[in-house]
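Quick start: load a record and inspect it. Here is Deoxyribose-phosphate aldolase:
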Amino acid sequence: MPALATDLSDVTRSEASLRRFLHGLSGVDQVGAEARAASLGTRSIKTTAKAQALDLAISMVDLTTLEGSDTPGKVTALASKAMRPDPADGSCPQVAAVCVYPDMVATAKATLGSSGVNVAAVATAFPSGRAALDIKLADTRDAVEAGADEIDMVIDRGAFLSGRYLHVFDEIVAVREACVRTDGEDAHLKVIFETGELQTLDNVRRVSWLAMLAGAHFIKTSTGKVQPAATLPVTLVMLEAVRDFRESTGQMVGVKPAGGIRTAKDAIKYLVMVNEVTGPDWLDPDWFRFGASTLLNELLMQRTKLTTGRYSGPDYFTLD
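Running the structure step on this input writes:
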């Protein structure tokens, strides 16, 4: 990996210099990455550690509904569940955020109030990212003005895959600027790559660095609308990128795998990987999230099993 220039403008001042930097990153050994991810996924943990892991995973969930059929009632119910995932157990942690479309931000915000659960809004022509920049920025500003604490933007994958890296960089910078609020509490920016469309792990590493150079607070695998979505090898490469970025700049960036993570067993595999690759600093909802709509109930069922010794029925928890 080449040394990061002291002045980031040295890297991003032109298409040519940005391309040289991104293509100068060390290549990813796909077979090696897949083997390491598989190896980390076989780690076993003790029962006490599993209980802690389940609670940690719950606290990292971005509880998500992104359907055309979303209604204020559904979002209100989801936000209520985010604050009290298990109504029968007050010791159960709340989730990190509720993720909705921009027009539902105000509804989610009104329900969540001062609970500490964030409201995340997808923006920038989610999930395709195919829109003019002024439309993407208006979409972002609308969500921020409605009270969104976090913005999940999607990159222009067509621009990235055709080598127009500076175009992608400039859009991320512009969207981050649109996250600025008059009250001084800027919305955090999560940048979605849609890794299932990026073809290679080398591209995943390049786009991770590109987004971080542009000021992303989080890098995120997927929209959940394209398969494959989150995978362990892809997340491994992204975790290595944020680790290396911190070593080069001193800045931490979060990681959010999203889409296809449905079981507690899978969630724990990701937590083991975080601990092994980036270290315990990232084992915190401020730096690692799960984007999921069905994972939470599975985590709650496993948590109840550890507490009571028996599985709850499938109708014990509300459906999301």
